[in-house]
Structures are given as structure tokens and as C-alpha cells.
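User: I'm curious whether this sequence folds into something compact or stays loose and floppy. Could you predict its structure so I can see for myself?
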Amino acid sequence: MEAFYKEWYKNLPVDWETFKKRGIWQDETRAKDYELYEKKLTAAELEGSETDADGIITKDGKAIGVMQGEKAVIGFETPSRKIQVYDEIWPTAAKAVGLPMDDINSSPIAIYGTVPGHENLPEDRYIFSTFKWNVHTQGRSGHWKYNAEIIHTNPVFMHPDTGKKLGVTEGDSVRVSVFRPEGATYRSGEPGVMSSFENHVRFLNGMHPRVVMCSHHVGHWEHGAVGRSENATSAPEQGIADRIEDKDIPDKIWWAKKNGGIGGGVHINDALPINPCPLTGGQNWYDNICEVEKI
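Assistant: Here's the prediction. I'll summarize afterward.
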């Protein structure tokens, strides 16, 4: 492994041992690509420009910068070239797509609001959230053997008091049933369970009693022996090699169920509803509503 990285970084102007010790090398001659809003406008850029009473610098009818004290800088990519916490684009966009003007997403300024499905949350329902472990990249790293050895399963995390309420202990299996969201979003308010999955329970004292969580990067049925957490090879006609080149496979997949391990986790994507933000389209992963029952 060290030989691989040594070859990879051989063109850096620093010797290998120093690079190993420091763990980083920085090209001090390279122009910085951060704090670009403080970049000064050049004389050529300022030629023919005008500055209004608010310090906004315009050229050919377009804002190109803003005065910061005595300096003319590029600023931010907004009409005022400043950080804007108020913007009429939001009510304009809301009107264009038919969103009610009293909806929180129609406000020209950021305001606090409760997620619609969380208001008056019934006692038998919970906020279902998800997350990614720091050794994985969503579901794209399930076949990395060293990372999979660290994290290869995704229990349903909950507070111990939640477990008591549900009558479950650590290791018990539960069914998590997720509902469609409320509010101005895709297929909101449709009755009944959208989808479910089954998994085992693990307690965390730091959890909120009304929240359950399950990570979303495992449960593969492809991605090779490591991704599937299996020791067996597949037949050639399935499009998968009939032999294993890696000497660590299959004997060292100790978490495989055939070895008495916990297995490769549960795929939960199908249990997460399409739930985009009404105007920006960002998917809501973190505050869906679910029921949990012991199996």
C-alpha cells in the first residue's frame, strides 16, 4: 500500500518521508481559490464602471462588485454583491409554481417553521432520519474491504426509553414503516404506509426519544463478495468472475452471516419517499415520519 502511494505522489517537490510525516503539501505559489469575494477588481475591470450610493459597482448595466471601505472588490454572486438574507426571488418563484403565498417557502427572508409532518406528531409515530458513516461514500464504497470491515451494517438507532416504550431490547428485529410527507411536496398526505424495511435495534443515549435513525450505505445485493457480505462466489453466467483473486476473500469476511456474523445490513432507499423542497428541489432525507413495531 505504501509503495502505491509513494508512486502516486512521486512528482511532488517534497521527499516521501517528509510528506508522510506532515501528511500535506501546499503549493504556496498557487492563487487561492477561497475568499474570492475579497478579490480586488482590476483597473481594466473598473474602467467604464459606476458606483452608486450603496457602494454597488455596475458596468454595462450589471453589478460587478462592491466597495469594501476604500477597496473595490468582486463581492458575492448576488444582485447587491453582498450576502442577501432578503430576496424577492422566493415569492416570485412561489407564485410562478402556484405555491401559496403564506407557505414558509414563499417568504423573501428565512424564517423558522416546523416540518409539517412533525406538527402534532401522534404518539405511535417517530421522526425517521438517516446519515452516512465517515468511512463510506453513500452506497458507492460497500465493496471496499477495509472500510466494510469497519462499518458493514446499519442498525436502527433509538434511545433506550424508546426501546422500552416499544418493548424491544438491543438486537431485536423491528419493522420501520415510512409514510408520505405532509406539506407542499410530491404526493403529500397520501394515506397509508409508503414502504417498510426490517432491521435490528441498537440503543444510543444521545438520541432524541422521538427520533429513530438508520444509515443508508449498505445492504447491497451486488458489488461483489465484500459488498454483499458473502463468502460464496457466483457462477460465470451471472457476469461475475468464477474465482476470487483477493486472498482476503472469502475467509476474512468475518461479518458474513454464514460465518455467524451480523451480515451486510439492510437497503433502506426504497423506504424513503421522494420529498423535494418545493422551490429548490433538494431531497429531504432527514425528517420523514415512520412507525416502528417489534417483529
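Summary: The beta strands are 50-51, 56-59, 62-68, 71-73, 126-129, 156-158, 173-179, 193-203, 211-213, 288-294. The CA atoms of residues 126 and 251 lie 40 Å apart.
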